[in-house]
What we know:
By secondary structure, this protein is of the alpha+beta class. The chain folds into 3 domains: 5-129, Roll (Pnp Oxidase, Chain A), CATH 2.30.110; 154-241 and 278-329, GAF domain (Beta-Lactamase, 2-Layer Sandwich), CATH 3.30.450.40; 347-456, Arc Repressor Mutant, subunit A, CATH 1.10.10. The chain has helices at 53-61, 92-107, 154-167, 171-186, 225-233, 242-258, 309-329, 374-390, 397-401, 415-429; strands spanning 18-23, 29-34, 37-41, 44-49, 64-70, 77-88, 118-129, 190-197, 202-209, 219-221, 237-240, 279-287, 290-299, 352-358, 363-366, 369-373, 394-396, 433-439, 442-447, 450-456. Strands 2-1-5-6-7-4-3 form a 7-stranded antiparallel beta sheet. A hairpin with a 4-residue loop joins β14 and β15 (363-366). It is elongated, with a radius of gyration of 27 Å.
Amino acid sequence: MSLRLEEIRRCLQGIIPCVIATCARDGTPNVTFLSQVHYVDSRHVAISCQFFNKTRRNFDENPFARVELWDPVTYEAYHLGLKYVRSETEGPLFDAMAARIQVIASHSGMAGVFKLRSADICEVLWARKEEGFLDERPAGEACAEPVAAGPLSELRALSLVSCRLNRSPDLEALLQDVLAALDELFRFRHSMILLFEEGTKTLVTIASHGYGTSGIGAEVPLGAGLIGTVAERRAPLRLTGVDTLLRYGRAIRGRVAETGDASSLRPEVPLPGLPDAESQLALPLVVGDRLLGVLAVESREPLAFSDWHEPYLEVIANQVAIGIDRFSDSPESEAEVPEATPRHVAPAARPRRTFVYYRGEDCVFIDGEYLVRNVPARILWRLLSAHQKEGRSEFGNMELRMDPSLGLPAYKDNLESRLVLLRKRLEDRCPDVTLVPVKRGRFRLELASEIVLEERDT
């Protein structure tokens, strides 16, 4: 080959759709766009087979094809000469390509409709640049060189992140420290950490960095979008050219609707994050065989994440998972929590807040607006009820763990993470109700308003 595939890896990121030309046995040509040309090794690529029945039939009759692709930075054109080798419908390669398509399908409401049928492996017979595709630049005008991959010292950056994680005094500090470090050391301006709720099969945003609004408490169903897919498959996934992929998915959705099969389509799923993200990378947080959550970073730049970022951030994700698991153990030892002296404050001097707990939906609303749901909602309701009925202000993690009404699992209950989520939701939606740490395993409920509690079935 006149070019090595490694020299044009940027062209295989999917930012600019590729074009493939095949030919039937009788010489009839067929040209169509490709959503994905996946790098396999220095001599092979894989083509995603979804709807291209004609392309697949041509491969069976005549295994040769030609692919045209473009560099998303320089816009130079390249051609690949391919020979079809085989199709894979399972295995690591198929799973990696299927996950990318699953993300787009779930975003555009086509889960189960828009899916990978096979990964068609092709040998690359030759690769060459299309000379004269671009006009010659005037003398002295050079194309801007891409930014070199990697920070100045990858090991030094990893060491700094590791030190911050090890020194974090509690779970909330750990989450904030790691997201701040990703910004400072890697320039990942937008990131979030979501924790997995086994009972509801959802991921809940517990920490975010770089967004205009906090987004704390935003939920992602398992299997939905990039974050849900990464959680379901427990494997990292990187997307580039997200806008192009979504437009492609929506075009397919429109075609499916036109053919009269609209009943199989679902509404598009709004997910947390940047509405105009061009690059996304998500990694599962796993300890042993337990899924704890997902670490996700994104950018408006199409080529924000390089090949080295994925394995590098896997190391950080593993450390975050271990840190979350460590704080889940909560070794506080108090068996009983003394009741605090009731505080008497004139109700007329403070505003009034109405909290409503909906038993059927297992959620709490404040002044008619949604606040929190599931275990954090039950915890909040227990605290507010104890304060109103008994005048209590201080509580301990141990007593919450021993309360069967909260429905915490007996092993690895993630109580700390639920308290972090509750504290942040209160800060965002109701700052006059706060949970203030007293010492490890104990906190104080502080109210700057009069509270009214109501329970309803629905």
